[in-house]
């Protein structure tokens, strides 16, 4: 079949007349760009959310909840129309006995991407592989079996449609507690968000988006599947700048679906013949042409009214399309032709000379980008490999250097390494030993704490103790009066110094110093035995010192 020649610039867009048709007043808002509407103070970015669609028939509350309870599964279940061996699994992280849903147990919520009439899309990170995904969550639970069957058709069409680089990749779907969840790949942003951020998109970039979407439509139309709802919010852009068509909720299968159950897409991008007839492949071409027209001109497309009909008659003011190239104006006018029979197919558009030229440039840029990514990945792998090799090559030399450094370095010991214990005190060389004994405080009159003994300690008392009280000290809280020795030092005195001889008891010239008051406080109490013999020896020692005085 010979390709139909594309229309020239003379049969493209025309400038509409501002006269009111049929003598009626035009009350519609004037056609303008999104930037002009934003400057007027009525930004479309913050428009009110769309109204929820009403049910065709609303049963009574009791019957409605009764129907809902019959189709609510308490646990998560995979939704798939493939063979059992080809179906995905929920994973080992999911525990049905917990109160958290499967989404909460197996994913980490990163943010919210958007919300529509039927559900909201959230950005999540999988706990299994750590990758980012988009999950579409249904807002309402299943009303009945028919409603559940209708919603699961989106999953079936996802699985029946072969994958394509310009279609959103479907991962899996599951249902839990009466709601449907669809997990897909995550893109950086939608084309609608891109158009609102950048009101002037370069024309080469417009061509690239058109080529990507035409290849996606060609793939779908070759399987007799119509998207029906092509618009910027359903088109997504990856970080590599590749456009992907998504949101297959209204997808229509020409071979299986009933035309009476076909749904309409967004009225801004809807072809006029779809209002009275079933959707066709030409309607997808028209919606794609309106999408590209909106991106190229930044027009704020109307939902209805006079300007809605004028745009479908290709009557657009020259100030909005005058800066477009003749090739782009010709292709857009061909795609939004009022007659669906005159519109080209996706395969015919891809064979157009202007599109083929930009398609070749697009392929070169993608190959260049892919080459840069491949080289970057290989360089990263090579860097890691070289780092590991150098580390293990020089590791023995590092060990030898550390061993030689530690071997040549003398070992430092503490000054107490050669110490010994004699009579419970340290002996041997010791640092910071004072050369003279410091003057001791007079503690003879200071009270001591109460003891469990009944009598006071008095060595001059000749009375004997009972068998149970031999060697015991008094219990009364009193002061201890120690004798003042002015003569020789007690044989049980201990010196504050350490070593083989009491070095601290000698002066600078080596002479032995006289005993000082307080030396008797250092009597080693371990020599005080709790026996009568020890007490008698202590009495004899005290008597000897008394006689000497």
UniProtKB/TrEMBL annotation:
It is found in: Golgi apparatus membrane. GO terms for biological process: meiotic cell cycle; negative regulation of G2/MI transition of meiotic cell cycle; oogenesis; spermatogenesis. One of its GO terms (molecular function) is metal ion binding. The chain crosses the membrane at residues 381-401. One of its GO terms (cellular component) is Golgi membrane. The keyword Metal-binding applies. ATP binds at residue 136. Keywords: ATP-binding, Cell cycle, Differentiation, Golgi apparatus, Kinase, Magnesium, Membrane, Metal-binding, Nucleotide-binding, Oogenesis, Serine/threonine-protein kinase, Spermatogenesis, Transferase, Transmembrane, Transmembrane helix. Residues 1-26, 422-447, 493-522 are annotated as: Disordered. Its main location: Golgi. Gene3D superfamilies: Phosphorylase Kinase, domain 1 (3.30.200.20), Transferase(Phosphotransferase) domain 1 (1.10.510.10). It is an enzyme of class 2 (transferase). It is a peripheral membrane protein. It catalyses: L-threonyl-[protein] + ATP = O-phospho-L-threonyl-[protein] + ADP + H(+); L-seryl-[protein] + ATP = O-phospho-L-seryl-[protein] + ADP + H(+). Residues 107-355 form the Protein kinase domain. It holds the Pfam family Pkinase. Its EC number is 2.7.11.1. Belongs to the protein kinase superfamily. Ser/Thr protein kinase family. GCN2 subfamily. This is Membrane-associated tyrosine- and threonine-specific cdc2-inhibitory kinase wee-1.3. The lineage of its organism: Eukaryota, Metazoa, Ecdysozoa, Nematoda, Chromadorea.
